[in-house]
Inverse folding.
């Protein structure tokens, strides 16, 4: 079996799990899609996988302790009508960010190698993702990669045109902390 055939079968297995309608299957489909995206981020099937991945994440039963992600702070006007979201990762693990709205965007933000448990320890070179998206209403999920015990942040963001937004994420004490601007200036 060729690599291409293997990958198509792998993606279809995740899709079949989604179509089964069984609520418990979403986590298995998510696992399939995450492995695919981690191993083959540039593959021609990646966009299809991202769409099904976002669908599975939104339909997966949420834990009792869902962490709500509020809209990030407006930083400044862009002056050109664009909408830009800047996210910094001040945690020692990768995070995956899913924007699902007028466009679908699935991005991975590298960990902060110099960061420790405390956000105060990470004021230097912090990984930054800058994402241009069309304005509109987005379902947003931020989840850690490699730490299944961390509850993902889930929110609904209304992003306006001509605006730049800023957010900072850290993993501390088994969960995400957001809004760490008191420790650092973005």
């Amino acid at each position: 079996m060729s690599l291409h055939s293997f990958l198509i079968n792998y993606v279809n297995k995740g899709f079949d799990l989604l179509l089964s309608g069984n609520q418990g299957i979403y986590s298995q489909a998510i696992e399939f899609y995450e492995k695919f995206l981690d191993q083959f981020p540039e593959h021609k099937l990646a966009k299809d996988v991202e769409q099904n991945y976002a669908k599975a994440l939104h339909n997966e039963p949420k834990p009792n302790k869902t962490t709500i992600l509020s809209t990030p702070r407006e930083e400044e006007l862009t002056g050109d009508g664009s909408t830009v979201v800047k996210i910094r990762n001040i945690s020692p693990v990768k995070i995956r960010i899913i924007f699902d709205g007028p466009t679908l965007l699935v991005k991975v933000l590298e960990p902060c190698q110099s960061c420790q448990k405390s956000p105060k320890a990470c004021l230097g070179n912090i990984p930054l993702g800058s994402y241009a998206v069309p304005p509109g209403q987005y379902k947003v999920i931020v989840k850690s990669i490699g730490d299944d015990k961390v509850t993902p942040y889930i929110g609904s963001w209304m992003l306006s045109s001509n605006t730049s937004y800023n957010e900072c994420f850290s993993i501390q004490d088994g969960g995400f902390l957001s809004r760490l601007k008191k420790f650092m200036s973005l």
